[in-house]
Structure formats: structure tokens, C-alpha cells
Specification:
The protein is an alpha/beta fold. 27% of the residues lie in helices and 27% in strands. The strands form 3 sheets. The chain has a 9-stranded mixed sheet with strand order 11-10-9-12-8-1-6-7-13, sandwiched between helices. Strands 2-5 form a two-stranded antiparallel sheet. Strands 3-4 form a two-stranded antiparallel ribbon.
Length: 256
């Protein structure tokens, strides 16, 4: 069993997020970065499957500048067997289709049985990369997974639906799965794991090996939304009050 786990380095929740309008993102020199939350659950689930099997390999994979090696080393300290760094100095946000194509170029030769990714990233929150990657690699795909059961050449997954509903789906391997936060308890790196991580393989793949042309989406601007607080007291007859409320909901709030 060979499992890839896509992990992303994102700004920490407690970090200031000053906007860099030129790079279409945040000013990175003022940001503290850490592993994306749902990716840590994906990593833990992959390790639990391998441990239950008694054999296999968990590979932690991240795309980005040299700073992402920190979270790859963290994954190795938690027990991942090796890491792959898709080295890219591209700044700003990248659309999920382009990201998936870049990952696919590198991962297609690895022949993974499973690819795990977090449901969505804490920064852009698009939640599409893992599913698109599965399609590009001709894998079965599932998202919003909150439980897994490995079978013989198959994976049974429990998906979280709307309004408290759940769905069990059986996928034939290979498969690409997006993991929901909370399905397990991610482990902390041990001192032994931290020391051992230094000796584990971390393969660096240069951008020339996975660059793709023709972005299908582009982000024009990143900005902090302006808030406008005002209070309007509506007086009069009930019909007049209702008419004014409907007008506000249609034209100002835009929910009707």
C-alpha cells in the first residue's frame, strides 16, 4: 500500500495578514506559516491505514517555495516515510486546476494506491485540488470523507452530506480522497521522530519538471472587505413596513 498525502503551508490563524496587492496575496515576511489543519487529519488517516496493514509507505508532498520544507519535515517527524517538495517560487494564489496538473506531472510515475488531501485549505478554501488530481490520474474520487475502511483493492468511505446526512461509498483503488477535519486525532511529533526526520528522504523536484502552460483561472485582486454599519428604524402601517423590508432585502442585502 502506497499513500500520498498532499499538505499545504498556510498562514497561521493568529498571524497578521497584511495584503500585498502586487503579489495578489499577503506580505509573507510578516506571516507565520504552519500545516493546513485538514491536511494534518489526512496525514494521520494515511498513517493509521498503513499501521493497520502492517506495511506500506506514506509520502508527504507539498508544492511551494523552500519554506514548505518545514511542514514536510513535520510530516516526516510524525511518521511519514519520505517527502517530495515541488519547488516553486511562484507567489500569490494559484487556481486549483493548475495546481492539480502540476501535482499530476510528478505523481503519475509514482503509481499511488491512495492520494489523501485535506478538504480545503485555510487560506483560499477552494477545496478542489485533490478531486481534480484524481480525475487527471484516472482515479476514483470522493470528498467530505469522515471515516475510511480499507478492503481488498477497495476503500469504503463515509461522506458528510447536508442537514446531518451521511453516505457510505465504496471506491475501487486507486482513489483520491479529500479528508474532512475531525475524523481522527492527529499525533504530535515525538523527539525520536524529530531526530529521525532528518535522515528521511526529501526529494526536491525543480519547477521545470512540472510547469504547465495556460492557467484557466486568474485572481485579479485580494482585499479586505469594507464594512458599512447603519441602522434604519422602520415606522408606519404593517403593509408599509413589510414593503420596506422586502425592498431592503432585495436591493441592499440581496437575499431575495
Amino acid at each position: 500500500m502506497k499513500i500520498a498525502v498532499l499538505i499545504k503551508q498556510v498562514p497561521g490563524a493568529e498571524s497578521a495578514l497584511p495584503i500585498n496587492s502586487e503579489a495578489i496575496g499577503v506580505q509573507e515576511d510578516q506571516v507565520s506559516f504552519l500545516m493546513n489543519e485538514s491536511d494534518s487529519y489526512a496525514l494521520e488517516e494515511a498513517q493509521k491505514i498503513i499501521e493497520a496493514q502492517g506495511s506500506g509507505e506514506v509520502v508527504a508532498i507539498s508544492l511551494g517555495p523552500d519554506r514548505v520544507q518545514k511542514i514536510i519535515r513535520e510530516a516526516l517527524a510524525k511518521g511519514a516515510d519520505r517527502g517530495i517538495h515541488l519547488q516553486s517560487e511562484a507567489s500569490g494564489l494559484v487556481d486549483p486546476l493548475t495546481l492539480a496538473k502540476q501535482f499530476a506531472k510528478v505523481l503519475e510515475s509514482e503509481h499511488f494506491d491512495l492520494i489523501f488531501s485535506g478538504l480545503q485549505s485555510d487560506d483560499s478554501g477552494m477545496g478542489q485540488t485533490g478531486i481534480i488530481l484524481g480525475e487527471l490520474l484516472n482515479m476514483a474520487t470522493a470528498s467530505l470523507v469522515v471515516e475510511t475502511e480499507l478492503g481488498e483493492n477497495s476503500l469504503k468511505v463515509k461522506r458528510e452530506l447536508e442537514a446531518g446526512w451521511f453516505q457510505w461509498v465504496t471506491l475501487t483503488l486507486p482513489a483520491s480522497i479529500s479528508i474532512q477535519s475531525g475524523l481522527n486525532q492527529p499525533r504530535y511529533p515525538s523527539l525520536r521522530g524529530i531526530m529521525g526526520a532528518k535522515k528521511k528522504e526529501l526529494k526536491i523536484v525543480p519547477e521545470s519538471d512540472f510547469i504547465v502552460d495556460g492557467e484557466k483561472q486568474s485572481i485579479r485582486k485580494v482585499f479586505v472587505p469594507k464594512t458599512d454599519k447603519r441602522t434604519e428604524m422602520i415606522d408606519g402601517e404593517p403593509d408599509a413596513v413589510v414593503a420596506r423590508l422586502v425592498e431592503i432585502l432585495k436591493n441592499d442585502v440581496k437575499v431575495l
